[in-house]
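Possible race condition, two jobs.
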Amino acid sequence: MNYTTRSGIILEEICGEYALIAVRGAWEHCKAISRINAQAAYLWQLFEKGLSLDQVVAETAAHYNISEEAVRQGLKPFLETMTEAGYLIPEEDNQDR
């Protein structure tokens, strides 16, 4: 499954802290402001670029110099939290595997 970022969500860095800010009606689907850590901000930026889940895993593994399996395990809580909060939208993966 792949994920897209909800339209109207802006990532801001303020004094070294990161926050997702809902604008343009996005607050109807999620909290107006959510504080996130640097790793979540990094992941958000990858999804914001429109990368597939596999691409996010590969980029993150290379960036942090860890295995793709470790990234996949670490991504689970992020994906669950961001999806439940309404910031990420799951979409069907149409690629043949």
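Job #2 (started ~2 s after job #1):
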Amino acid sequence: MLVCDEYEAAFLGFTEDVVSGTTRAVYSIPKCIDALVEGGMTLEEASEYFAFNTLGSYVGPGTPVFISPTSFETAKSFLESAAELNETDKDLH
């Protein structure tokens, strides 16, 4: 399992990747950005750095997973909205 020392405070746990057979570390995106801000970056710098240097990096099958924690109800609402958009898009074509 690969870990990101700079995001220790954002570590949530781990997950098993059944496709690759690896254990992957799981981190909170907002907490990762908070850690960068606490390290001296502005919020804008931290967000850009995180997006480019962390989310944009693939280091093999053990690449950590970064998530945006949310409630089940919020996730359910998001998925329902996405499904409605897909249906609308199909109607346009």
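The beta strands are 11-17, 22-28, 65-67.
Logs attached separately.
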